[in-house]
């Protein structure tokens, strides 16, 4: 038993948990945990309307589901909601005024960071810089405004990085054109455990905790570098800068000391040169007491969208802007197949049992067989496209003609993020949470 055990997340509840972004620390799911098929008339346990708008994923602790949202023309109010897993009813809502109100727009993040939850409560970071800790009954424990303390963000598209957690700390990455830093807050009272300043940059990627020989390391893949920090002290252990275009994907671990890096050329292709060499698998090892990052393989043919690449059952999966799924050998980076699905995705894929779920932006989830051969298992539309009424006022809220013309692309619902527990899959859109159940 080593000291590093102190940094594990608190014991999970018997009913299961999905405690953070992309399931970090989640309870194991059974092979057939999730339904294969659903539609508006089939296998929908419940759907809950949410106030305002949110792009964060839900998190789960036992029979509770937590989501966030912002509301108001200036994203004036930040909401934290607790819903019942059984029926989707809202158990409580806690709201705070934003300490950095900015105009609400489809081009600016709206409650984008996903919260984390443990046995003591839920911890929420909003892109306004507000950090709120609540107990499971919704009662406030503490609150801080990072924007007021360290400077307001300048990124015109907002911030989006989700926090990660250890048993003791909430770790928040703020990478921005203005003040940039990685900070660990004590869960019990919100005080600063450590803070590391970083070079200013434009990025929306979330950090991840990669374990190497039992030691947790916070890995940040963000706009021109991949960096590792000791989770307990914040000491910067290593940096890798032969990378570019890595401004949205989370560096997801897939084995001890191994993780993926995703990079995109960007909407205008401005990061094409750096991104071409930056979709890769990396490993970490300590040599003579010095941490050394190493590239295991690169693949110049793949790139992600807003979702992150994953490894599942010895295969790595990337989905590009056109909706092409690339399945690679996780050990070598060799492409097994590339196949276009019907919708591009913004959420990160999910592997469960013999399946991989790809959550299409416009509500169609494609289910493929896990493994090196392409096999389509199901295509599931969550809502009836004909019944969706676009947000008629979306264009009117934009400042430029270019933005007004493009706003129609984002005026309908988007599948932003998911959480899973045995028998149930939660899917978040901007204003609604769906629970899909196993028959």
In terms of topology, how is this protein built?
Elements: E1 17-18, E2 44-49, E3 59-61, E4 64-71, E5 77-84, E6 90-97, E7 116-117, E8 122-125, E9 130-134, E10 140-145, H1 146-150, E11 164-165, E12 169-174, E13 180-186, E14 192-198, E15 208-212, E16 215-222, E17 225-230, E18 236-240, E19 253-255, E20 258-261, H2 272-276, E21 280-287, E22 290-298, E23 310-312, E24 315-319, E25 324-329, E26 335-340, E27 350-352, E28 355-359, E29 364-369, E30 376-381, H3 401-406, E31 417-421, E32 424-428, E33 432-437
Antiparallel strand pairs: 1-3, 2-33, 3-4, 4-5, 5-6, 7-8, 8-9, 9-10, 11-12, 12-13, 13-14, 15-16, 16-17, 17-18, 19-20, 20-21, 21-22, 23-24, 24-25, 25-26, 27-28, 28-29, 29-30, 31-32, 32-33
- Contiguous low-pLDDT stretches (5 residues minimum) are 1-8
The number of distinct β-strands equals: 33
Order of strands side by side in the largest beta sheet? Answer: 1-3-4-5-6
Please report the distance between the alpha carbons of the first and last residues. Answer: 42 Å
| Overall radius of gyration | 20 Å
Total DSSP helices:
3
Shape: globular
Give the overall pLDDT as a whole number. Answer: 93
What portion of residues belong to β-strands? 35-45%
